C-alpha cells in the first residue's frame, strides 16, 4: 500500500501507483472508489473528456432540438469512435455508448435488476451454454452493496425476483396511468405486473435530488436524480484518486516473462505518449474496448493478444434483441410521459424447460415525438437505434406525411421485451485491420448473430405481446422486425469468467489467468447474460474485484 495520491496535475503518468484503472464507467468508478477509500493510490485513465454536470440543462436543450442527437451531446463519432459490423444483424455500436468520465451511464435508462439464480446455472439446469464459476449466492452481498452505492429505488411486489437480503435503498416509483391500462388486461390473462428497480432517486439520496420529471433520461438527466458513474469518480478523487481524461490507452506492455503487466501506454491530445506503470491494472472499459485493447497488445509471448492463451478473447459477445410493439386504443391514454418505465413482468423469466429462453417484459410509458420533430427527422433511421424508431425517423416524403396525419399519440400504448440470447462463439469482437481510428489502430468489428434459441424466444415474446394487446382491444400499429431487431446495447461476454484457463480469460476473482496483476472488472466477464439489464451485475463484479485486489495489496 503506497498511500493516497498527491493529485499530480497535467497528463503525465503518476509515479507507480498501486492500481491503474482503464475506464471510468460504472465498473471503473466503483473499483477506483472502493480501492481509494481503503487507502490505495489509484489512477484512472479515461479515453474521453470530463463533462461539467452544471452544463447538463444546456445539453438537454441541445438534445431535444429537432436536429439534436445524443452523439452530438456526448461528442461521439468521428475517427476516434470508428467501428465495423459483420454478422447477420447490424450492430450499431455507437447508438448508445459514451466515451467520457462516467462512461455510458451518462446516457442510460437506469434500470437495475439482478440476474436470477438460473442465469448462473444454464448448463447444469438446461444443458445450455456454460455455468458461471460463481453462484448467485456468491454475488448476493455485492448486489446489495451495488444497490446502496448507486441508489436503487425498488419494491417488494415482484414475486419472481431472486432472494434478497434487505429492502431497496429507496421506495419504488408508482405505476403510471398507462400501466393501469395494461394491468386490466394482464389481470385477465393471469399475468403479474410489478415495479421496476432503477438507479433513479425516488427521494433525496446521497445528496442528489429526487426525480423531477424532465422526461429526458436518455440522453441527459439534468437534475442528477438518475445515477451516473461520474458520481463515484468524484468520490474516488475525494479519497485521493487521480483521473487523467482524454488519455486513450493504446496498448498494455508486460514484463520479459509475460507474467505481469508493466505499463499502460496512453496517448494525449498534444500527441504525446506516456507509460503508466502500476502494481495492479484493472480493465474496466467495456465488452468491446477491453478485447480490442488485449488484441492490440499482442507480443511474442502472446501472438494472439494479451491474456489470450485460451483463444477466447473477444468471443462469446452477447447482447439482447428488442421485441417491441405499439397498440392504439379507442380511448385516450391521457399520459404524461416521464422518460422511463415503471412496470415490468418477470413472470416469463424462470422456466422448467430449456426452451424458449427467459423473457423480460417492459410496459413502456409511451413518449411520443412531436409532429414537427417527426417531419424534421424524416428518414434518419439512426435517431436512437432502438424501439422508438418504429414510430419516428424511418420514412421519407409521403410516407412520413401519412404517419403524421394518422398519429394520435394520446391513444397509444407500447411494450417491449428483452429475450435471452445464448453465448455463441461466432458472436465476437475482432480487429478490422482495413479501418483505423484517429491513432492508426485497427477498429473493433462486432459480429452479431441471433441463433435459434434467441429467435424462438423472440417469437414467444411477440405471441405474448399480441395476447395482451388483444385483451386491451388495441389495434397493432407498429411492431419491430424479428429478423432484424434493434439491440438493447447490453454488451457482455468477450473475456468470460471460468476456472479452466483453456476456456476462459478471468478466474472467479476477476484476475486474468495469464497475468498475475491484470484484472477485468466489466460485463465482458459474463458467462451468460440472461434477459436482464446488466449494469447492476457489472457493478457487483467491480466491487468483488476491488475486494480481491485490496486483499492482495494489504
Question: Can you describe this structure in just a few lines?
Answer:
Keywords: FAD, Flavoprotein, Oxidoreductase. InterPro entries: FAD-dep_OxRdtase, FAD/NAD-bd_sf, GMC_OxRdtase_N, GMC_OxRtase_C, P2Ox-like. The chain has 554 residues and is of the alpha/beta class.
| Count of beta strands | 18
**Mean of residue pLDDT?**
91
| Largest beta sheet: strand ordering | 6-2-1-10-18
Secondary structure: helix percent: 10-25%
Query: What is the gyration radius calculated from CA atoms?
Result: 23 Å
Major sheet attributes: 5 strands, parallel
User: What are the secondary-structure elements, in order, as H or E?
Assistant: EHEHHEHHEEHHEEEEEHEEEHHEEEHEEH
Distance between the termini: 6 Å
- Output the structural class: alpha/beta
Please state roughly what percent of the residues sit in beta strands, choosing from under 5%, 5-15%, 15-25%, 25-35%, 35-45% or over 45%: 15-25%
Task: Characterize the overall form.
Answer: globular
Q: Helical stretch count?
A: 12
Family: Belongs to the GMC oxidoreductase family.
Cofactor: FAD
Domain Glucose-methanol-choline oxidoreductase N-terminal: 99-320
Pfam family, one: GMC_oxred_C
What does this 3D model show about the protein?
- This is GMC family oxidoreductase.
- Its cofactor is FAD.
- Belongs to the GMC oxidoreductase family.
- It holds the Pfam family GMC_oxred_N.
- Keywords: FAD, Flavoprotein, Oxidoreductase.
- The protein is an alpha/beta fold and 554 residues long.
- 24% of the residues lie in helices and 16% in strands.
- The strands form 5 sheets. Strands 6-2-1-10-18 form a 5-stranded parallel beta sheet, covered by helices on one side. It has a 5-stranded antiparallel beta sheet with strand order 12-13-14-11-17.
- Helix 1 runs parallel beside helix 7, helix 1 packs parallel to helix 12 and helix 5 crosses helix 12.
- It is globular, with a radius of gyration of 23 Å.
- The N and C termini lie close together (6 Å).
- The relative contact order is 0.19.
- The N terminus is likely disordered.
